[in-house]
């Protein structure tokens, strides 16, 4: 008779966690894991001496958080809101399409699915998924609204193309949309200046804080922009 495996749940130190994440997230560091803990995204157990002990569930939860941040461009606050709600037994309705999560743990299969969202699209795939015509894509490229690397387009290009297809239906062509590119560059300049004190530091935790602050500032800028435009629109029928 085979001897029964009496080992309990696997306990990992931070170096072993990094080793498991390094293939999918090569820039991951111990300081960034601690930063995510500081933000409440994970909560590893501690020994009486204060050393962190990570379980397999902590690793998969980290993998899920990092994939959503990288591939869905979600700020940590939004991701934490999702996880907090699910940990309470709720099921948020506004998760990204196809994304689900179990309380406290994220399966490796689901994490792989989320990571798969960081796709590289050919021009044919971009046209098929956005509904854009060849002339429209050529115009978007010529006006700098989308770009490619080695003939491959990313999810940002897909989002832009989809929006421009809809705008084309309202008579707005890429040549009319160049101010959006200029405005985006000005907004990025504002964000870049705001987070400069953090980006000047080279440690991973500061870089993670800078990226998170940049996302938050960008969201606030978009909210301000939307409110100002909607204010003007509301006056049309007053």
Integer tally of domains: 2
> In which range does the helix fraction lie?
55-70%
The secondary-structure class comes to mainly alpha
N-to-C order of helices and strands: HHEEHHHHHHHHH
Strand content: under 5%
Largest sheet: 2 strands, antiparallel
Number of E strands: 2
Mean pLDDT: 80
Radius of gyration: 22 Å
Strand order of the largest sheet: 1-2
Overall form: elongated
- Rounded to the nearest angstrom, the distance between the terminal CA atoms is 84 Å
Uncertain runs: 1-7, 101-117
Q: How many H/I helical runs?
A: 11
Can you walk me through this structure?
It contains eleven helices and two strands, in the order ααββααααααααα. It is mainly α. α3 packs parallel to α5 (about 110-115). The model is unreliable at about 1-5 and about 100-115 (pLDDT under 50). InterPro entries: DNA-bd_dom_put_sf (IPR009061), MerR-type_HTH_dom (IPR000551), MerR_fam (IPR047057). Keywords: DNA-binding. It holds the Pfam family MerR_1. GO terms for molecular function: DNA binding; DNA-binding transcription factor activity.
Quick overview of this protein structure:
The chain has 238 residues and is mostly helical.
Topology:
Blueprint: H1 14-21, H2 30-38, E1 45-46, E2 52-53, H3 56-71, H4 76-87, H5 108-115, H6 123-130, H7 134-142, H8 155-168, H9 178-194, H10 196-199, H11 204-234
Antiparallel strand pairs: 1-2
Helix pairs in contact: 2-11, 3-5, 6-8, 9-11
List keywords for this structure.
Multidrug-efflux Transporter Regulator, Chain: A, Domain 2, 238 residues, two-stranded antiparallel ribbon, 11 helices, single chain, mainly alpha
């Amino acid at each position: 008779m085979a001897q029964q495996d009496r080992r309990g749940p696997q306990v990992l130190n931070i170096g072993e966690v990094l080793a498991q994440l390094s293939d999918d997230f090569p820039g991951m560091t111990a300081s960034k894991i601690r930063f995510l803990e500081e933000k409440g995204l994970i909560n590893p157990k501690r020994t009486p001496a204060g050393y962190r002990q990570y379980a397999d569930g902590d690793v998969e939860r980290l993998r899920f958080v990092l994939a959503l941040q990288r591939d869905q461009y979600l700020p940590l606050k939004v991701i934490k809101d999702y996880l907090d709600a699910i940990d309470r037994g709720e099921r948020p309705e506004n998760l990204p399409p196809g994304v689900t999560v179990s309380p406290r743990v994220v399966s490796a299969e689901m994490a792989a699915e989320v990571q798969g969202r960081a796709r590289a699209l050919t021009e044919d795939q971009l046209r098929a998924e956005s509904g854009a015509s060849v002339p429209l894509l050529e115009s978007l490229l010529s006006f700098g609204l989308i770009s490619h690397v080695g003939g491959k387009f990313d999810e940002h290009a897909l989002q832009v193309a989809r929006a421009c297809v809809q705008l084309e239906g309202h008579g707005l062509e890429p040549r009319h949309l160049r101010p959006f590119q200029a405005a985006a560059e000005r907004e990025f300049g504002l964000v870049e200046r705001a987070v400069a004190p953090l980006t000047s530091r080279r440690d991973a935790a500061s870089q993670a804080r800078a990226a998170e602050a940049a996302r938050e500032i960008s969201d606030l800028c978009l909210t301000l922009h939307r409110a100002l435009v909607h204010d003007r629109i509301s006056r049309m029928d007053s």
